[in-house]
Write a structure and sequence with these properties.
With 198 residues, the protein is α/β, with parallel strands linked by helices. It has 4 helices and 10 strands, in the order αβαβαβββββαβββ. It has one domain: 3-Layer(aba) Sandwich (Rossmann fold), CATH 3.40.50. The protein has a 7-stranded mixed beta sheet with strand order 1-9-8-5-4-2-3. A 3-stranded antiparallel beta sheet has the order 7-6-10.
Length: 198
């Protein structure tokens, strides 16, 4: 591990930054499709957004295994290990969390662990970086936590929503997703049903 990583601090205010980030993650999961700000300030490795980094520091610990997409620089793994103590796996099926910055490069969401009928909570949670909440295919979300419906268009490849339909249909199994921009998070729990607007 590079000694320079000790100079890339985690949360400047560990207690309040972690509490604030956790609240944003909870709210994002409870109200799918609504972005929530993450205000934690820190210095992060190249390629990792501040919001996603804060999510990692809040969710990851010694007991979890993380699959990190190969497009991330090696310093990202080093930084996560230094600050969280998490383990890593090269097998998506073994991951508790997956860190992703290029959804277009993923062949299928089914590559990850969808949990079992008896233990659906053991599935992989995806932490996905997106450029913005706009510029992608417009979809309508319905389901728990959404009043009537919610239109969103995050910058994701079209085939993601084909995968998401299969994921939703597998409920109670399936994966959950957090989308991160530079300073906000949006939740996509498996309960959220999507319909692509043509």
């Amino acid at each position: 591990m590079s000694t320079m990583l000790t100079h890339l601090r985690g949360f400047k205010d560990p207690i309040h930054d972690a509490q604030g980030t956790f609240r944003s993650l909870l709210d994002a999961n409870a109200r799918p499709g609504t972005p929530y700000p993450i205000t934690a300030s820190m210095t992060v490795p190249s390629g990792l957004t501040a919001a996603c980094a804060a999510g990692c520091l809040t969710l990851l610990d010694l007991d979890v295994r993380v699959w990190v997409q190969a497009s991330f620089v090696s310093q990202v793994k080093d930084w996560l290990l230094f600050h969280t103590g998490c383990g890593f796996t090269q097998q998506p099926k073994e991951a508790d969390f997956a860190l992703i910055q290029d959804m277009a490069a993923l062949p299928e969401l089914s590559d990850f662990n969808w949990g079992t009928a008896e233990k659906p909570e053991t599935s992989t949670t995806l932490l996905v970086q997106v450029e913005s909440w706009e510029g992608g295919q417009t979809v309508v979300l319905t389901g728990p936590g959404i009043l009537h419906h919610k239109e969103i268009a995050p910058n994701l490849p079209r085939h993601f929503w084909d995968f998401w339909l299969k994921n939703h249909q597998a409920y109670p199994q399936g994966i959950d997703v957090f989308l991160f921009t530079e300073n906000a998070v949006m939740g996509l729990p498996r309960t959220a049903k999507s319909e692509v607007l043509l």
